[in-house]
Amino acid sequence: MLYIVLSASIHGVEGGQHSFSDRVIFLLPSASASQAASGWSATALRCFNLLGKSTSKSVTQVQAQATEAMAEPAYTVPVFRDRTSEGTEEYQRVSANVGKGLAVIQQELHRMRVATKVQVDNLAIQREVKDMMAKKPDLLDDVPKMPDFLVALRPHTVWEKTPVKLFCTVSGNPRPIVKWYKGGKPVDPLSAPGKYKIENKYGVHSLIISRCVVSDTAEYSAVATNQHGTATSKATITVKRPAGSGESCHLGLVPHLTEIHASKLEVTLLDRFPVSFGVEGSSISLVCTMVVVPDLPNVPPMAQWYRDDKLLKPSKLAEMSVGGGVARLTLPHLAKDDEGLYTLRIFTKDGTTEHSAYLFVSDAAPTAAGAPGAPMSVKAYDINSDYVLVAWKPPNTVNEAAITGYFVDRCEAGSDTWVQCNDAPVKICKYPVHGLSIGRSYHFRVRAVNSAGMSRPSRKSDKVTAIDPAESERLQGTDEGYVTIPGEPTDVHASEIFKSYVVLSWKPPSPRGRAPLWYVIEKCLAGTGAWQKINTAVKLHSPRYPVFDLQEGQKYQFRVYSVNMYGSSEASVPSEPIQKVDEDGVPSAPGQIVATRNTKSSVFVQWDSPKHQKNLMGYYIDGRIVGSKDWFPCNHKPFKHNRFVVHGLIPGESYVFRVQAVNVFGLSEESQESSPIAVEPALSTPSAPFGITMLSSDGSSITLAWQSPKHCGGSKVNAYYLDKRDADTLDWKEVNLAAVKERICTVDNLTDGTFYEFKVAAGNLAGLGVPSAPSAPMKCEAWTMAEPGPSYDLSFSEVRGHSLVLLWKAPVYTGASPVTGYLVEMAKKGSTEFTNLTPEAVSHRFLQVSGLEEGESYVFKVRAVNADGIGKASQVSVPVCARALPGTKEIEAGVDEETGDIFLSLEACEISETSKFVWSKNYKPIGDCPRVSLSTKGRTSRLTFTNPDKDDLGRYSVVVTDTDGVSSSHTLTEDALNTMLELSYAIRHPVVPLKHGLNYEILEKGHVRFWLQAVKISSSVSYRFIVNDKEVTSGEGHKISHDVATGIIQMTVDHFTRANEGTYTVQIHDGKAKTQSSLVLVGDVFKAALKEAEFQRKEHIRKQGPHFSEYLYFTVTEDCTVMLACKVANVKKETAFHWYKEDDEIVLDTPPNVMSGACALPIPLFSRKDQGVYKAALSDDRGKDTSVFDISGQVFDDIINAIAQIAGASASELVLQCTPEGIRLQCYMNYYTEEMKTIWKHKESKIASSEKMRIGGTAEMAWMQICDPSDKEKGSYSIEISDGVKTHTRSFDLSGQAYTDAYEEYLRLKAAAFAEKNRGRVVGGLPDVVTIMEEKSLSLTCTVWGEPTPEVTWFKNEQEVASSEHTKVTFDGGKFASLVINKVTPDDSGKYSINVRNKYGGEFVEITVSVYRHGEKIPEPKLGQATPAATPAATPAATPAATPVPRSPAPPSKTPTPTPSKSQTPAPSLKSPTPASTPASTPVPKSPTPTPKSPTPSRGVKSPTPPRFMKSPTPPRK
User: Which end of the chain offers a freer environment for a tag, N or C, measured as fewer CB atoms within 10 Å?
Assistant: First the structure.
């Protein structure tokens, strides 16, 4: 449908006053352009007729109507939505007739032509008369005249913080333009909003300073100018501060200041609080800023806050403040009770000014998923001595389960302990609480319950005190004191009847007396007379009592007794029969619901009231996005009216709504859903354009530009109309009859040198909006400057928290040379200090501005530059706040998954019905371009590239019109484009994506499997295997299959031979996608595969009999025993198992148990001698198998490292052991062998084995001996045991006292060894027992040794034997001692002994001699008892086993140092017995001599004798 815009204007003079003009815009539907043309004249005539009827209105009435039309409406429900029944019928009738078609409209137009012609003729006559009446004054006004002040400015002296007004009257022709100056500088009202006000009414010019300060003291001047000259009027304003206010008073007399009441102030609201949203438990502040004249700190404005038209009072839950130009209401602890329409009302000298906005409070997070919201509006009614009735409002349940009941809690004032009042949930929103304590105060709260759990508690009620409200009145009565027994109660009835309970009420007795009174209640089934008491447990003090235990279907009667300390009254008259009835129930569902447009984020919803309201509390409104299943609550507190504005909706989104009615029983059924409605502003005329600026002038015309209206009125602005006037007149004249589409216009036919004012009005489908404010006077004179004119149309895009993009248009007037660039300046809102953002002029007409403060507002201006200099600055832009719109999204670059198209897409966070997506490249509109295509669906716009290449690189931006600045940009880079091109190609030429290409694996039995895996395949996939250019099908020798779940396609070759060498290919087709993968199996790769296949085939055959499932391997146990192990399979009891080393069978004490599945060969004390080839053989009647393990080379090293790992971990700390040869450090471990990698270090220097430092070890320890130590050997010693991965270190600090003690012990042992070596001893020749026949000769001969030569003494039975003829004692050459008994007799039997001794010690040897007679049985020999000789030289050694001693002297065997057991480490103080090595002066082998298996000890207990090869100890050096 097309629309035509008809414009008409009228001028008139009434009563000799100044003329005025007005315009009405009619937008009429037309089926075609021809119909529009044919109907234009008639419609215009009707417009003139309508205007003619209104000419009788006075100028004052018209101005009042214009003022009222321009005023911004307060927050109220639109009047047209609240229609009467007659208005509703009319609205429906008109709506039904709208679509009757164009034929009816054309008939109406024809009728209008005839009726309008008469009105047009009348209008022409009236205009001619008015022109003639105004002709004479116009002639007088044509006389030129320079400005002249008829009334000049007057000086003023005022007090601080009071207002002052300067005014003057100016004449002149043309009418002069007046500008105000302070101290020679122009007065700018925008520099301090609310402080300065400049007015011009009927030639009277005034400057008002609202609130003077001392700094306002200055000379003020008014300068009037027209084309004939200039006039100036000056006056001084002096501002004084009262005495005592920080400055002395400059006036001698202080005038009396009239007291100013708050209601006499002039208040103008500025920033007003918007519709707000809060959550239970949080806080929120509603703030209004204002300008107060005069602004007196001790007289703040009188402000009142209302919620739902109920006055609020300051409290802990509502904190109020006013002052400093701000009125604030803070709600510190939000609850759903706080939801409602809030109104700020301020009293002014003109009445009141107010502002209203709705506050929504949503439920806090539930305590359990699905639990209901909290109840609200908990109040206590019918308060008595021990009874109150608690009532509340139910919460809204949208997606939660239905509420099954409520629990009521009470708490005494001043306490935090809540007590539950009801044991079972009550199903209605009322509950009688009884049993309260008289005189105590209580709070109450309520919790809701459903199947999912318990809600949060409601806000607690106001404090109530349990007291009879009429108690004090009764006590003041004069007759009460004479009454003892009270009278009976009266009017017993049921005040509340529900299915859950019945509340009995009655009137107290009269008279009742002053004694404390209580009541007793009885009940009976109606008509039976069988009365029984029902309140025996408690005394009832209130004339109310809830009864819960009545049976359904039965009727009851009740009567009440009054009781006090004197007695009981008679029974009251029984009540009427009372029966518990079914609950009255919830209301019926509301009627038809209609949703209409309101604003860009709200919808107006209204509905019909339910037919059965049943004490209606209000309504709950729910909403749902079209296409979604989830409903959301629009309000959280029952709303009383049947119309509601739903706020917080997504602009441009479509919603449906439903309504539920609420009463004490709960929520009604949902109403029917409304029709879907898009969230768009209600259709209205646009607001006024603004920012009229002059772009150029040639002396006869002026080119103007302006900013579009801030509010388009829900429809696209499609027309602009301009008016002009001379600056010295009040008459406005039309500039254009035809609508101007763009925001730039050249006004022709102007007079050179004349000042003009302009105003602009915008039009849309709803009509013509209010005109803009008049522009500043603009002088029509030709521009001749060489610099450019101003840029214009400054706009913003991509506004974010810290950046934005500024755009502008080139100046119309370019100057003497072309524009080469632009300079941009920026300032914070309210500041006059601009910062240059472009050190060098930019050539493009946009600028990315970054580094902004989020939430701060900024203004900008632009200057064009050419070769002649910098041009005029543009008009300062409108302030822009650096904050992104809620829900802002950025442009996304992507590739369509179906078509492969590369696109840029934006989803708008808000949109309107008239919005359009305007795409630009490098901020130049794209328009119709073959390289891209544009598409829009809902809130999303997409720019698709037709054939993308490098020419498409650049910055793309999009702006969504008719929104609050929804815009975004995206820079398309070459890398990103290449990536998307690759993806696009993959989509347009689809392939089956592969996880793994064609590969092969050797299976058991020597089968070869060729396989590949796709990411995904369908059940309809097809494929081919091609081997050496020949397709292979599933059959004998080949098995081909696939698995859709895993995407695997495979072929198995049963017998793989040399004939299978070649190239393998798989071709796959799956829908439109296809792919292929090849594998070349030739040469060495094929030989390796064939070898592996043959091996697996042989392995399969091998495993048919007994075989090794795991071949031989080694392990090392904790005691460092090496185990050769293997695992066997497919064995039976008859299977034989044998171990071999170098083909020699190893027979174990315990035969291997093959049935256990594992066999092992232990190798203890592993060393180099255990190297060799080990073999395990397994055989039975089914076959045999062998496993070979070669312990040599790297394998041997690995075993040693494994031993070293365990031994090193078990190594003890170094132990100090002294010997006669030196100091020895020993490290005990589980096992030691010289093949282990051990390093001894002295002060971090490696020690090599030498005569000085000897290194060795045994199976249980490693040692290092320092021979003949000196001070050089002091320091730290350590041993490092390496296992190839880790080094185990043990250390000992041989210095200080440790070295001193060790050295002393070494010297002691060395001296003891020398003494042992040189002491006297028997070295051989004597037996232990001698048995001899009498008359025989006995010769006891032995060899002795000692240095010096020892003394020899013989004893018999401990008596020294002297040499005689019978017993001869000899000692020859100091070596041979003998005792000869000639012809022994039985008396010679006994214990003989020899004592060999020198200065170093000696030895005592015993011999038992038995003499028997001839013919007697040889007696059993009896050994003598060994008696150790007490020698001071050394501690005697233990007695070894008795064996014959060789007769010839020989050196003793080398005996190693005895080692302790594994579980015990010897203490460092343990003395070494026989030394194990020679001193340094005696050459010995480097390695210690092994201990002989059978050492030969001496017979009997002997004194310690040093070995023969040891020399005398060398005294230590001093």
Answer: C
CA 1036: distance to chain centroid? 62
Question: Which has the closest alpha carbon to 498: 415, 572, 428?
Answer: 428
Please determine, for residue 270, whether its predicted confidence score (pLDDT) is greater than 70.
Answer: yes
Question: From CA 510, how far away is CA 487, in angstroms rounded?
Answer: 6
Q: Long-range contacts made by residues 1058-1065, C-beta under 8 angstroms, separation at least 24?
A: 1058/1090, 1060/1008, 1060/1027, 1060/1086, 1060/1090, 1061/1086, 1061/1090, 1062/1027, 1062/1028, 1063/1027, 1063/1028, 1063/1029, 1064/998, 1064/1000, 1064/1010, 1064/1025, 1064/1026, 1064/1027, 1065/998, 1065/1025, 1065/1026, 1065/1027
Where do the DSSP E strands lie in 938-1088?
940-945, 954-960, 967-972, 994-1002, 1008-1014, 1022-1027, 1030-1032, 1038-1043, 1048-1053, 1062-1070, 1073-1081
Edge to edge, what strands does the sheet with 1245-1246 contain?
A: 1245-1246, 1237-1242, 1275-1282, 1287-1294
Q: How far apart are the C-alpha atoms of 641 and 340, rounded to whole Å?
A: 12
CA distance 1391 to 1408: 5
Q: What is the pLDDT of residues 761-772, one digit of tens each?
A: 999 888 899 999
Residues 501 and 552: their CA atoms lie apart, in Å, by 11
The secondary structure of 1387-1414 as a DSSP string is GG-EEEEEEEEETTEEEEEEEEEEEE-T
What percent of the chain has pLDDT above 90? 44
Inter-residue contact 1473 to 1437 (CB < 8 Å): yes
Tokens of 556: 């009851």
* CA gap 781, 812 in Å, rounded: 16
Beta carbons of 371 and 455 less than 8 angstroms apart: yes
Helices 102-141, 33-53: crossing angle, 10 deg rounding: 50
Q: Is 441 helix (H, G, I), strand (E, B) or coil?
A: strand
CA 1285 to chain CA centroid, Å, is 45
| 1294, 1247 contact by CB (below 8 A) | no
CA dist 353 and 1443 (Å) reads 134
Kindly report the CA angle at 1315 between 1310 and 1319, in degrees rounded to 5?
160
Q: Which two tokens stand for residue 90?
A: 């009319």
Q: Which amino acid, one-letter code, is at 437?
A: S
Is pLDDT above 80 for 1472?
no
Mean of per-residue pLDDT scores for the chain: 81
3-state secondary structure at position 1062: strand
* Cα 716-722-725 angle, rounded to 5 deg: 160
Please write the tens of the pLDDT for every residue from 8-48.
333 333 333 333 334 444 444 433 333 333 333 333 433 33
Q: CA-to-CA distance for 776 and 706, rounded, in angstroms? A: 13
- Helix-strand-coil split of the chain, %, nearest 5: 15, 40, 45
Asked if 557 and 576 count as a contact pair (C-beta separation under 8 A), the reply is: yes
Q: How far apart are CA 754 and CA 654, in angstroms?
A: 54
Query: Two tokens at 271?
Result: 């920033």
